[in-house]
Amino acid sequence: MKQIPFVDLNRTHGKLKSNILKSIEKIIDNNSFIGGEEIKIFEKKFSEIIENKNCIAVANGTDSIYIILKSLNIGFGDEVITVANTWISTSETITQTGANPIFVDPDPEYLTIDVTKIEEKITNKTKAIIAVHLFGQSCKLKELKAICEKHNLFLIEDCAQSHLTTYEGKIVGNFGVASSFSFYPGKNLGAFGDAGCIITNDDNVAKKCRMFANHGALIKHHHQIEGVNSRMDTIQASVLLNKLPYLKEYTESRRNIASLYHDRLRELSQIITPSILENSEHSFHLFVIQVKNRSALIDFLKSKKIATGIHYPTPLPFLKAYERLEVKPEDFPVAFHLQHKILSLPIFPGMTIEEVEYVCESIKEFYS
Ligand SMILES: *Cc1c(COP(=O)(O)O)cnc(C)c1O
Prior knowledge:
Layout: H1 10-13, H2 17-30, H3 37-50, E1 54-58, H4 61-71, E2 79-83, H5 89-96, E3 100-104, E4 126-132, H6 141-151, E5 154-158, E6 166-167, E7 170-171, E8 178-182, E9 196-200, H7 203-213, H8 234-243, H9 247-265, E10 271-272, E11 280-281, E12 287-291, H10 294-303, H11 333-338, E13 342-345, H12 353-367
Parallel strand pairs: 2-3, 2-4, 4-5, 5-8
Antiparallel strand pairs: 1-9, 6-7, 6-11, 8-9, 10-12, 12-13
This protein binds pyridoxal-5'-phosphate (PLP).
Pyridoxal-5'-phosphate binds at residues 60-62, 86-87, 89-90, 132, 158, 160-161, 182, 184, 194, 196.
């Protein structure tokens, strides 16, 4: 078996490449690098696929979180609750508004925010909860909505890893006031560089986000407020438009690989395979197992030419960036415990059955 990479984008790009090159050539010929027609078309098509009213294309997923927070007037002295195990974009953007991120331990079974540990962290400064559908797993949205309604908080969904994940039959991103998406190349829908978007069913929030992302102006030179420069490039929009028709197929492919992994690895007592939330469809941005003897397993798989990853090696509150919080392991026992157990296996559209079988056989060989 040849090398099994963690992600191989060429498997999906191969057959799209000539069409994408044609689209890019058109943009070069038209000089429509910023604000080209592809942006509007992408926004329309993406909101159709996600079944939401408004889509605002922005420069990256991190900005999309920041812009949502700013549009909701979240700032100095406010508190925003989110989960301890996520990518730092979710929390650094909270800090950038002047607000404070308040971390909550993940649920030990589903690895998304533990809804039973949220209310004890709510104060009169709390303004919002950012729910992260980590690895493609939906958060417990019914419980989250109830908490937000009870305490009058905004629910924001970070969907950077959860394109087409569903919860009770509805696509995630549709449960709160606004949601953020990332199209970083390795995400379930990836551009050829950085890109992201915001979706919202609230027209007023949509207008504010669009304005803020474009220097505070909806019409050129009519700056209503100070904003930021966070626009999606036309070239990235055209790449995404070429890929969008395949998003469902890519997601199915991820789900099929995941179910094969589940099937083959279930019997191993040394491994915990990911639980899938009931009434939900996971989109498996990552397939994260919990293992015994992790570093030896990683080395063994490397010797078998199998790449793996760890998402993420250190839960956010324990990073140097958050030393000001002075947290102890017992403040986030689940996140602390998980950091030494989690291991992400290769999963990407176009990964073959033989490759998945080989990964599973190799893991079995290690434990036998
Ligand atoms: C990737 C990611 C982001 C940020 O997206 P970028 O496009 O890389 O800025 C935010 N949140 C989570 C959970 C992510 O995985």
